[in-house]
Amino acid sequence: MPDDKTYRLKVFQDNFVFSKARFPALVSAWGTGKTFCLITRALKACKDFPNNLGLIVRKEFTDLRDSTIRDFEKYTGMKLNSSRDAVFPNGSTIMFRHLEELHGHNLQNMNLGFYGIEQAEELDTDEVFMVLRGRLRRDKVDHWGAIIANTNGHNWIYNTWKVNPKPEFELYEATTFDNADILPATFIEDLRRLETEKPKVYRRFVMNSWDDTDAVDLVIDPEWVRNAVGKDLWMTHPIKRIVTIDVARYGDDKTVFYAIESSKDELYKCLAKESHEKKSTMEIVGRAVLFAQRHGIKAFAVDEIGVGSGVVDRLKELGHQVIGVNSSERASDPEKFYNTRAEIYGKGAELFQDNKVSILKDDIELQEQLSWAKYKVIKSNGQIQIEAKDDIKERYGRSPDNADAFLNGLWALKKVRVEKNPETMGNVQQTGWKNGAYVPPWAKAQEPVRVMR
After folding, report:
1. Quick one: 84 and 133 in the same domain?
2. Measured distance CA(280)–CA(263) in Å, rounded
3. What is the pLDDT of residues 346-371, one digit of tens each?
């Protein structure tokens, strides 16, 4: 900043600017001075260490030119040269680049002292951050890589800095109201109206909520998921039930079971969940059958691609109704959906949007993963396509096993055979039903059974 100006930093700003952490992050709401703080930190690094070299990155060129560079020149009084570099008298330089310029040999030849990513939530993955991390090797300077960002759901920033961060990663947060004393009163008043008019925008951009996201291209809106958590549903007969299984393909993935039931009115309720790591096909089958028996379920939906095919075959050998789910197959409505995977996610999205689903309160993994998948519309034919599971795993560092399993179950329930009305089925010893509800074999016949859920 110009030497004749004095700025009083807020605590969260001061902590970020002067952090000794190798990888500090300032994730804060509107009006909290994020860009100012990043520029201040970069200026300090250049003045403290002669011949330092830093890089400030923005995803899009127009944003870099019209926002980042403009703010830098306004705050510092400096002008960038034709290469978009700010050169200091002591030989230090700050380069301003957009994402496309980082691809190729130029980045490989950089020996950086520091880097900063502005609006880092615009990046889908941590790839850029990690590649730049490998360029922090300039001699005789302090090394750091910083980001500034708005929250955007449980993305890579959330996973890196918010959830069990490593010691080198420090997170600083603030709401708009933490800086309200220097913001226009009319601006603050308008934000308070936003709380009623656009609550999702208010939570994310004013209160710095990590639970809200830019849902423009998400298949399932996080708000729909929140509405489904622990939701009370009036389940009417005939009721169909299924155990849905997503079989682990990789060493770090999990095999997930869900017990789900649907009602006559097409309401869907999750009854239970189990997950297992590193189990053989036969172990998965055995555990799945026991899980199904505990909930009085005879039908299974299994992702049959890859190792799941062995689970399908064995369950069929045991006499169970098995619905194989092949997400790459042709959709039943090919004019609308690119493949079965798109149809499965599309059906699930409709059910969540219509408040027809109830999920378990303590299933945090499912609550997060349901909103991970993005979609696009194929321009040539208008089909809806869902991004691949591997792409989701690359972005979040985890596979969406829970979401895939659960959504497969919602889709497969329409194919489950309808049992006779349990009110008219024989005695409980023969059928497992009493007064319209399933009674497991080990339950006492005289114990009361709830019918409605």
Report:
1. yes
2. 34
3. 999 999 999 999 999 999 899 989 98
